[in-house]
Amino acid sequence: MASAPVHHLRVRVLLLVALCFASASASASFPWPWKRSGHGHDYRDALAKCILFFEGQRSGRLPADQRAAWRGDSGVSDGQAAGAGVDLEGGYYDAGDNVKFGFPMAFTTTMLAWSVLEFGDDMPREERRHAADAVRWGTDYLLKTLAHPGVIFMQVGDPWKDHECWERPEDMDTERTVYNVSAGRPGSEVAGETAAALAAASMVFRDGDREYAELLLESAKKAFDFADTHRGAYSDDMDLRAGGCPFYCDFNGYQDELLWGAAWLRRASGDDTFREYIQNNGKTLGAEDSINEFGWDNKHAGLNVLISKEFIEGEALSMQSYKESADSFICTLIPESSSPHIQYTPGGMIYKPGGSNMQHVTSISFLLLTYAKYLTKSSHTVNCGDISVGPDTLRLQAKKQIDYLLGDNPMKMSYMVGYGDRYPQRIHHRGSSLPSIKDHPERMACKDGTPYYDSSSPNPNPLVGAIVGGPGEDDAYGDERADYRKSEPTTYINAPLVGVLAYFVGNPNPGHIRH
């Protein structure tokens, strides 16, 4: 084809489409047509590679200790299109393109921070340091988006022009258009998620860099105040919608991000004001909506798990409804329960239509382990109709999903680049699929990459640790670069997986899994 396709993998499909009533026999038994290998997975190796992936997604001037050596500096003048003094260098490219989308980047940073907070003690010291570096690469950029009064910068790069090209980030010459939200063009979902990311990250750095942690927390409060004072969704603005949609449209509304940001500020600061905000605004902001989803757009399931922590620990009995909503979500994941179930593939993978399915596998697995951790510290269980579910069951459910991702699946392949003997070779990723600037320093223009895009050869620069979108509902994966719904990695697939893998590094055998 003449140019790279415009990819819409991030167009969210509502969970109402994704949820199905699986038959009791199919859900309970999982008739998987494969057998596990005779040995367990190397979760430590997988964790190290999962974190390394983020170095391949970096934008800006790369540090001296950059380990993804095939990458070079890129986007060093980002922000200049917005006027003098605007510096938006840094941050992460969201996926296989060269655009910096602030909404999913902030969510990625939140999940990296939450991973470190819940499971950092299970990480080897060196990986804990690398994970904190990944968080900081995100927060350093997010602080820049708040640096100018009255606006929050939410995106750098025209996605339509970017997607017309297949070129390395080091060469990109497409317009680096800057988009921002303001009082007149609100974007509470972006501001609220930015507040959540900075608040969560402040706890990551509290012990080692108190001054930076305080800066993050104060900036989080400012972002939240902006989100709450100027309420509205950026995708309701025609100009912002033209840049962000259909790639990261706010389908779910901004209300959940207000509660999400407040919840993280409550946890990071201990300030009762934010708990009162949740109590006073929860109903009007949709806290009672029964939406069993968690990802860059919809925070409901994660919000319920996060807030229920205080109730489970006996510190906020007024938050009982969030525990009940979290329980309801968990029950949809338990095949033996009488609740309507999330769909599973014949091979046992959580599946939702819309592409980039591994984002659901990793984010839901993270919530399973985190909720199990909270339950373990109390006598609480999850009541799923005629059965009561405890922490061990949740951990085993998460382990099934992660082992599937790492190779225990009908294709008998890992969906993490560089892990195992068989993994994706032709991922939908510009920098990975083109000759490295270190090996081919001559500039490659917009269309010069098209032959590489069309090639059936493996990518010359393995993006180690990248998790691809993954197989479809039939468990099949063709390893085709053009099939972006299956072969494109994203930062928000990897971010929650950091925490999940860290847990299994410290607890590789949480129980016996019967196949």
From TrEMBL:
Q: Which Pfam families match?
A: Glyco_hydro_9
Q: Name one GO biological process term.
A: fruit valve development
Enzyme Commission code = 3.2.1.4
Record keywords: Signal included?
yes
The question of whether Ubl conjugation is a record keyword is answered with no
Q: Which UniProt keywords apply?
A: Carbohydrate metabolism, Cellulose degradation, Glycosidase, Hydrolase, Polysaccharide degradation, Signal
| Active-site residues, record numbering mapped to chain | 428, 479, 488
**Known InterPro entries for this protein?**
6-hairpin_glycosidase_sf, 6hp_glycosidase-like_sf, Glyco_hydro_9, Glyco_hydro_9_Asp/Glu_AS, Glyco_hydro_9_His_AS
What does UniProt give as the signal peptide span? 1-28
Q: Which chemical reaction does it catalyze?
A: Endohydrolysis of (1->4)-beta-D-glucosidic linkages in cellulose, lichenin and cereal beta-D-glucans
**Residues annotated as domain Glycoside hydrolase family:** 43-501
Q: Which family does it belong to?
A: Belongs to the glycosyl hydrolase 9 (cellulase E) family.
UniProt protein name: Endoglucanase
Q: Which organism is it from?
A: Hordeum vulgare subsp. vulgare
